[in-house]
Amino acid sequence: MGQIHLELFATLDLVGQAPGGPDEDPGGGFTFGGWQAPLMSEEGGAQVQASYAGTDALLLGRRTYDVFAAYWPLQEGPFAELFNAVPKYVASRRDPELTWAGSTLLGPDLPAAVREVRERHEVVKVVGSLDLVQTLLREKLFDELHLWLHPITLGTGKKVFADGTVPTVLRLLDPPAAATPTGSVLLRYGLLEGTPATGDMTAG
């Protein structure tokens, strides 16, 4: 069985909506689209690229798919080569036209379809796609969570951990990656079984 990795770019208050551009996801009147762009650096780009080593499939929500399908086929470089070459699996409640080569629409039973994708590939990356991520978090249908934290707060927007997130235990897989010149940090977590334990810190 392969692994599903969630790649999530977030602010310190864990807003993950539309990091890449103003038109990426203006839902809810979000006015900070593209908040990640001023915080990008050469070192941060290298970290992101290294994180995609071994990726052999993408799992995307429909909105993220539309953004990627309009952009990556026109680009060159390592990311474009990877994204254009690997299979793309798309979660959508509708029947969208999938024009990007190698794209497949997942069936209506999303958890079952995702499990089939994980059986078929070694490393499946979920990029952005916050609505899809909420389902994967609830179903605990992921193996690693890569949280790219950026040193800003927005106070509005869709959160990485939204309403409906279930109690979950994770472990830090390695020390946080060195902060980039702009102060962004990568935290890599692995999913553990069970639910969070409780205790009493006042007990003698």
Model description:
InterPro entries: DHFR-like_dom_sf (IPR024072), RibDG_C (IPR002734). Residues 35-171 form the Bacterial bifunctional deaminase-reductase C-terminal domain. It comes from Klenkia taihuensis. One of its GO terms (molecular function) is 5-amino-6-(5-phosphoribosylamino)uracil reductase activity. The chain is 24% helix and 22% strand. By secondary structure, the chain is an alpha/beta fold. The protein has a single domain, classed as Dihydrofolate Reductase, subunit A, CATH 3.40.430.10.
Secondary structure elements and pairings:
Elements: E1 3-11, H1 42-51, E2 57-61, H2 62-71, H3 78-85, E3 88-91, E4 103-105, H4 110-120, E5 123-127, H5 130-139, E6 144-150, E7 169-172, E8 185-192
Parallel strand pairs: 1-5, 1-6, 2-3, 2-5, 3-4
Antiparallel strand pairs: 6-8, 7-8
